[in-house]
């Protein structure tokens, strides 16, 4: 199943012109600065905003086709929408908020079990409370559950964590990961937080100035040097693997492909799937295998491309570890010249630190 | 209180109840439209529904008399429908009172609807509620304090109606003679003690009604600050 969208609108001083072709599986992140048009795009998908000359199709269902005068109003679209602020109904308690959408769909369409969702998002102790008596994080969990209980074909999330502080974000992220692992509902996730996106997304759409700059599997999009600067906190690559063991000296090991990465000690059990982000600025390159270095994560790699970095005098080098895994290294152009780093050369990549997501 | 006065009180309460119902039916869609529209007509429509606030009741009453009278368009319509003429009847003063009290009901409702904002309506739509469903299950409960204010204001304003009633209805016992007219009659006839009963009762009633509005709005405001 696929999602095909074409949105076009001109407003004072701003043109939005996007064509999207997304897989209807997993989590797709729409990433961009505020004002880039990503929220407008999400609202258009939901039908909350009717953009002229636009088209939207999910699977075989056409929700909008202005050239044929088709526009399905939002309440007839099988979507779930989580807004930036939880927006619970203040006149209803948590249980009634949860049931609001659920009781408006036919029993035959209910594919998501209420008890499962309540368990998944840890809402059991909150059911009888009024929204006013909840913390920000609790409210957002209720809002997510409320949207899921309509058994949506597509879950739309508009920066659901941005109104929360860091601690609350950390409280909700594991719930989002569980949704991802346990429910087969595709998600479109709007965000301008690089850490959330790299942690959750399978696919990444980079949006800037109302246009799609890049789209594809997240690992692939991140490797493209041109997009590094759009990702606001620096070029990076993503490593996804499984915890394979806990080591001495407060360390854990993450296995990915035929490689192993040494991490600071993790609480997760062996076998747990984990994502890490390696910033290009934390990767350096040696021509020979270094032995007398304090860095413990060293991988043989092949240079696949050398491109310009963000600032003059900087180069971004893409290193291929194997078919699946690449790393980005940010080097000075002086070093690149001195070491004669060219595509096809074999080098050793030293990873100084890893951000566990 | 004499039996005549009790008839007057009963008639007044009946009038206020009928008028309040009529007002809710008319003012709710108007207030909803005003709260949601981006139409250029909004200021004009707002002004039309606020006019009764500033016009002297005699002016309003005069034009309503012409409109509802046997030669007026509304009068001819009601006569054609076999309803007879409206002036000097209960139905006539009910319509006149409703027109005069409209702004007192439209405005609190419009304020309450505007205070809800767009977001709850959008949330309801994404939860599969049609606009009609959303109105009854989100807008009405969220605007409850506004409805309460509107009902109390409409009711109290109708109970105190004098000028318009006099212009349209005259002074027919059991049909159009309401409290304020009766107080006027008592004062004219120097029956001050009877006038006191009715006038004092109105003061007490108005105070209690307004107190209830303020208490309820105060509570709603405190609850509303999430």
From TrEMBL, chain A:
Annotated keywords: ATP-binding, Cell inner membrane, Cell membrane, Membrane, Molybdenum, Nucleotide-binding, Translocase, Transport
Residue ranges of every copy of the ABC transporter domain listed in the record: 1-234
Domain of life: Bacteria
Record-level Gene Ontology MF annotations: ABC-type transporter activity; ATP binding; ATP hydrolysis activity; molybdate ion transmembrane transporter activity
Protein's name in the database: Molybdenum import ATP-binding protein ModC
GO CC annotations, alphabetized: membrane
Residue span, Mop domain: 292-357
Pfam families linked to this entry: ABC_tran, TOBE
PROSITE patterns, alphabetized: ABC_TRANSPORTER_1 (PS00211), ABC_TRANSPORTER_2 (PS50893), MOP (PS51866)
UniProtKB/TrEMBL annotation, chain B:
GO-annotated molecular function: molybdate ion transmembrane transporter activity
Protein name from the UniProt record: Molybdenum transport system permease
Annotated family: Belongs to the binding-protein-dependent transport system permease family. CysTW subfamily.
The keyword Plastid belongs to this UniProt entry's keyword annotation: no
CDD domains according to UniProt: TM_PBP2 (cd06261)
Role, per record: Part of the binding-protein-dependent transport system for molybdenum; probably responsible for the translocation of the substrate across the membrane.
Swiss-Prot/TrEMBL keywords: Cell inner membrane, Cell membrane, Membrane, Molybdenum, Transmembrane, Transmembrane helix, Transport
Location within or outside the cell: Cell inner membrane; Cell membrane
Gene Ontology CC: one annotated term: plasma membrane
Entry's transmembrane regions: 15-35, 47-68, 88-109, 147-169, 195-216
Annotated organism of origin: Neiella marina
Primary localisation category: membrane
InterPro entries with a match to the protein in the record: MetI-like, MetI-like_sf, ModB_ABC
NCBIfam families the record matches: modB_ABC
Annotated membrane topology: Multi-pass membrane protein
Any matching Pfam family: BPD_transp_1
Limits of the ABC transmembrane type-1 domain: 9-220
Highest taxon above the source species: Bacteria
